[in-house]
Amino acid sequence: MPAISTLRNASPYLTGWTRAYYQEKNFVADKAMTPFNVPNEVDKYATINNDHYRYDATNTDMMLKSTDKSTSSEFDIGVSSATYNLQLYREHHVVGRLEGDAASQKNIKLKETKTRGLKHHMSVYKETQFASFLFGSTNYASTNKAALSGSGIWSAAGNMGEAAFYSAYTPKYVVRSAIDTVRKTSGGLIVNKMIVGAGVHKNLTSRADFLKFLATSSDVGYDRQNRFLADLFGVDEYMPLLAVSNSAMEGATDSMGDIGGAFVALIYQPNGAVDLDAPFGMNFNRETFPFVAEWVDDWRMGATVVENYECYQFKSVSTVSGFLLTTVVS
Predict the structure, then answer these.
(1) Which positions ≥6 away from 134 have C-beta within 8 Å?
(2) pLDDT in tens, 165-216
(3) Which Gene3D superfamilies does UniProt cross-reference here (predicted)?
């Protein structure tokens, strides 16, 4: 794919505008799983099994010990391949000449404002795609998922006090146990990201003990709660999925609801190169995407058409590099 500046009708200005809008705090898809840019829409990527962690006291000892007169033992690393298949997404809006002129007289940037709304709409869709992928049971091994019930459900009135930190069924105990399961099943990977649904986040941050501990923290800033919860649960990043969607048909009464439900996903997901450590998944993204194109449509009496383009796929890589908790709150 050529550079954006050479694409027909591509708008570097509006592209920059929409890319800046990725900073919306409630959208976590591209933060939890950093986009991995690829040149082709369909291609192979490497996967690796746990053979490189293998140790058998007798056989490994015999394999590795050697002399300067013998040949070394051959050990095969289990590398295979899988296929990603990116999906193209696009939609457009139209700014008529008359409405554009009227808006400019009132110092309203109508084209930019509509483009931002279009980007938000596409981001809502991407966030729902991400939530379905992240909280999808089939993306976790049978040993790496659990449904909470009864006294194990995280209520807003529970107690995470120091004496109860390591008691069974408390949030910290459940999360730490899940992190340890990932470490054992994945060959030593340590969960670094905890993504929770909006209902889970609300209950956690409503607990009296949490508010008490937060009051004693010297940390400040907008993300203070998230940083505190990351420290509490022993992860690098705590991310509440707080985005909402409107499930009503166009023209009907709005029906707003949370995209993230009563789930907690604990995943190993590096922000940089993957190397040999198998991440939970990959956010494959076509190079030069997302971008925005605009053109004047003579068939619409000179109206300006603005079209947003995205091309990506969320792909499972390792079902043991994460742990899924369901029915976390009632």
Answers:
(1) 32, 195, 263, 265, 267, 281, 314
(2) 556 568 888 999 999 999 999 888 999 999 999 999 988 888 777 777 777 6
(3) phage-related protein like domain
